[in-house]
Each structure stands twice: as structure tokens, then as C-alpha cells.
Amino acid sequence: MSIKNLSIYALALTLGIASCNQPNTNKSTETSNDSTTFYNGKDLNGWHVYNRGNLESKWKVENGELICDPKGNGEFGDLISDNEYENFELDFEWKVKKGGNSGVFINVKEDSTYAATFATGLEMQLLDNANAEPRHQVDSTHWAGCLYPVECIGSNSKPNPYGEWNKGKIKQQDGQVTFWLNDKITFQDSINTPAFKQKIANSNMKNYPAFATYPKGKIAFQNHTDSVSFRNIAIKEL
Q1: Exposure winner among 25, 111, 127, 184, fewest CB in 10 A?
Q2: What is the CATH number of domain 3-237?
Q3: Mind listing the pLDDT tens digit for each residue in 112-136?
């Protein structure tokens, strides 16, 4: 091999090694933003019943929809993610039947110490406002899209009629939490401030000392006594 060819070979080898040592940032980005590991639209892989594990429940997946049928086979229980999340954006669509009531929880601490998801997790209320029980209709913190039963921008709680799909979104970043219902903000607050803690103290959630005390946790869908369906469920970690 000539001196000239040897120099070219050495240069190519150096570039090749340098290329191999570069981190594959595209691959890691795709993995962290891959919502199929959160909800795959095919089955309940990655999810289980709160405090009870992978037993047969009222939850099922049909045609990509996550459905809770209280009249179906299996046990009652909120469906909760296997993994915890802290800074994220969660998008989903939801619908209920006439007078239907459900919710989506964030920052849930799964522990036998807490009998229910609402003991720790913040709930975005899902409700057919127009046909709900009177006790829900008279209190804006009970309306669709609101932080139940603490705080609400009631003027933006305008769910579509029962049986129609609604858009929901939850964002949490560094303690700032925002709920959207059909592209309008229905709740927004910093959950780590004394002012927010006072709002809890003024609500019925004062009876649950661990409520809103965890900065991260699991995400849960509520198994109420009513039917509820979800679709286009996706999460992006921030």
C-alpha cells in the first residue's frame, strides 16, 4: 500500500470510529415519546386494577377504545398505569352515557395505605353536566374538566352532549398543572404553593391528608358506576 493510500485509509478509519462513538439521540427520543408503551390500543398491557393487580375487571379494549362497562364481567376498580410520571402531557378523548360520571387521576400513589386513587391523586372530572346528579350541577368544582372537588374555571366547562366524544388534556410540569376540556382551560394552578394548599383545606379533600402531596405518580382512569370510553390516548414525557 502506498503512503498516499495508507493516509486515506487511516483517515477513513478515524472517521468511522468517531461515527460509531456518537450517541444515538434519535433513538432515545423516539423511545421516550413512544405512547404505545403507555397505551397500545390493543389490550391492557401496562395497566392493572388499583391495589389489586392483573385481575379480570370491568375494563376492556375494543377497536382501540378503552371501555369501562359496569355491567360487564370482572371486578370493579380503577385502572392504573404500571409506571409513574412527573412532567408530561396526556391527551385523550372521552365520552359517557346520559348522566355519566368518571375521571382521570394523576400523581396517584399506589399503596395499600390508601384505599382509593382519589386519596392521593388529582382528578380531572369527566361528567355529563346537563344530566348529572343535582349535587354535581350546583357545584362548579364538580363539573367536567375541573379539579374535583377543589377548583374550576366553570365558564369553560362545556362538555359535548352525552354519547359524543370530548377532547381532554392534562399537562404537568414542575408542579404547574393544567387541564383542558375541548381546547379550553378548565383548571390551572401550581400545586406546591401555600395558596393551593389552602384551597384543599377549604374543600372536602381536607379529609384525605395525602391528597396532592406527591409530585409524581401513576395515572388512573376511574371505574365509577357509569359507563365511560376513552380513545386516542397518548402521553409525552417532558
Answers
A1: 25
A2: 2.60.120.560
A3: 999 999 999 999 999 999 999 999 9
Range name among 17-21, 129-133, 149-153 with the lowest pLDDT average:
17-21
Is there a contact between 152 and 163 (Cβ–Cβ < 8 Å)? no
d(CA 222, CA 97): 15
The secondary structure of 53-84 as a DSSP string is BS--BSEEEETTEEEE-TTSSSB---EEEEEE
Which grid cell sits at 218?
A: 401513576
Q: Are 78 and 104 in contact (CB under 8 A)?
A: no
The residue ranges of every structural domain in the chain are: 3-237
pTM attached to this predicted model? 0.85
Q: How confident is the model at residue 81 (pLDDT cuts 50, 70, 90)?
A: very high
- Positive or negative torsion for Cα 198, 201, 202, 204: positive
CA distance 8 to 222: 65
Q: Which amino acid is at 22?
A: Q
End-to-end Cα separation, the chain, in angstroms: 53
Q: How many CA atoms lie within 13 A of 41 on its CB side?
A: 12
Kindly give the pairing relationship between strand 101-108 and strand 184-190. Answer: unpaired
The answer to whether 235 and 35 have CB atoms below 8 angstroms apart is yes
pLDDT at 225: 87
Q: With H, G, I as helix, E, B as strand and everything else as coil, classify residue 149.
A: coil
Sign of CA dihedral 168, 134, 101, 222: positive
- Phi/psi of residue 143, nearest 5 degrees: -80, 165
Size (the chain), residues = 238
